[in-house]
Amino acid sequence: MGTIHYLLLLGTALLMNTCQRQQNNEINQSEAKPIWQDEFDGNGMPDTTKWSYDVGGHGWGNQELQYYTKANPKNARIENGLLIIEAHKDSMENNAYTSAKLISKGKGDFTYGRIEVRAKLPKGRGTWPAIWMLSSKDPLQWPDDGEIDIMEHVGHNQGFIHGTVHTRAYHHSIGTQRGHMIQIADCSDAFHTYSIDWTPEKIDWFVDGQKYFTFLNEHKTDKEWPFDKPFYLILNIAVGGTWGGLKGVDETIWPQRMQIDWVRVYKNQ
Q1: Is 152 an annotated catalytic residue?
Q2: Catalytic site includes residue 93
Q3: Minimal CA–CA distance to 74: which of 63, 66, 240?
Q4: 89-122 pLDDT tens trace
């Protein structure tokens, strides 16, 4: 009886210790303060102290069909506490569509951390929304300097969210990119939180706190892991392109919008 009683007490103590650690972790997470954020409160235009625009319509290396405008409320605005990025079927400089691509380069650049974006995605064949990151290095050499795709979704594969990295060793142009996908059936009907947890050892991908992919630092060369320097955030909707337009573009669905509730960046715990 003494041995059994001791084992029961030991088991109870271990369980209580585990529960306490979990509770402490939850408290730390809930009390964490972002080191950079945009809550998109109110109405108007995106905050120019946090966001700039990539502008142009040259295909962006993927044969995309849109022209990215600068500070045009038709394509990017804050409306009722949400950032709206909206793609329209209207021509500009020989491009059949317009959209917006917001970047935080020089205004929000990060090495490691937890990056979270709460968003509702557009829907329809030809849409290609993305929440992603590129190296802040200038001039940029792709894929050598790396790319982190926090969230990509293509309308011809509705409801499947992709998280991916691209490096010199691992990128889609040679079919070696590293990534995974998760099904989120209502991604175009409801808001979800898309996030990564980026450390010197790995990058984890999550949707609503559910981890679905990990990319490990193999500790080889920069060809495998260029993710030890500052990166900036990118929010955009592309139209068509080599992946987004793989099954064509439905010309009847426009305009289409991505709605973003907030962007928050936390220091690693």
Answers
A1: yes
A2: no
A3: 66
A4: 998 999 999 999 999 999 999 999 999 999 999 9
Q: Which of 31, 147, 201, 218 is catalytic?
A: 147
Q: How far is CA 201 from the centre of its chain?
A: 19
Cβ within 8 Å of residue 239, ≥6 positions away: 64, 65, 66, 87, 96, 97, 99, 126, 127, 128, 245, 249
pTM score, whole prediction: 0.89
| Cβ contact 218:225 at 8 Å | yes
Q: How many Cα atoms occupy the beta-carbon half-sphere of 134 within 13 Å?
A: 18
3-class SS at 157? Answer: helix
CATH of 36-266, one of 2.60.120.200, 1.10.8.60, 1.10.287.130, 3.40.30.10: 2.60.120.200
Q: Which residue among 152, 201, 218, 224 is the active-site one?
A: 152
